[in-house]
Amino acid sequence: MLTSTRSPHVARLRRLRERKGRQQSGTFLAEGPDCVAAAIAAGWVREVVAVPAHPLGQRAAASGYDLHDAEDRVIAAICDAKTPQGVVAECAIPGWTIADALSGSGPIVICDRLADPGNLGTIVRTAEAVGASGVITTSGSVDVWNPKVVRATAGSIFRIPVVQVATAQQAVQAVQAAEWTTIALSADASATVFAVVDDFQGSGRDPSQLAWLVGSEAHGISSEASDAADLCARIPMQPSVESLNAAISIGICLYVALGTQLPGDSN
Question: What distances in angstroms separate CA 183 from CA 140, 213, 228, one per listed residue?
């Protein structure tokens, strides 16, 4: 039973809240039932810390993972969340590559210098919801394994490849080499108005083979990435609105572009 918030064990896990700690250990924290359950299912778990008799703690132990019972206040000291839910797992960072993101049969999202963890986590969750092949982030983006990002994905980050690369140009070139169409989202009034359904239905292009680029909240997509993309588009909106939230923009594009090809219940 872990009872001290100052024990070396707890201190080691707390360091995973920081990028440096994650880079040194090659592990990250999964907090709360949704993420821990997904981590166990994915087989990424190194150890689980849970309040006594927690169902996920028992499930982890039954699956052969190390389990440490702990007091609520100890779990609160480990977790980044303000209201921990009684269970946290240390997980191995997977070695996803661009090839993994390209191996699926759905669209890809490229996030260029996206800084907000809630936005990135929501994009990963939305990408899984539409059956996307993967998400790519560039240098300057929030760390994919930041606890806030992981929580915002609600477990999706364990089921869809999320790849980190140096630049958006690198990502664009890789997906173009695989014969995907890249579309950069822009707030520029001169960009083509977003009309993917009209543009792609009957055009011979497969809307599931699109890579969508979305930029930072403050600066948008880099000019180099925008220039490298096959197309540039904007979402139509009232003149009084300058731009939409990055996660909302990507959600609109993914759902509208895929249309009837969306997975799930067709009723």
Answer: 20, 6, 10
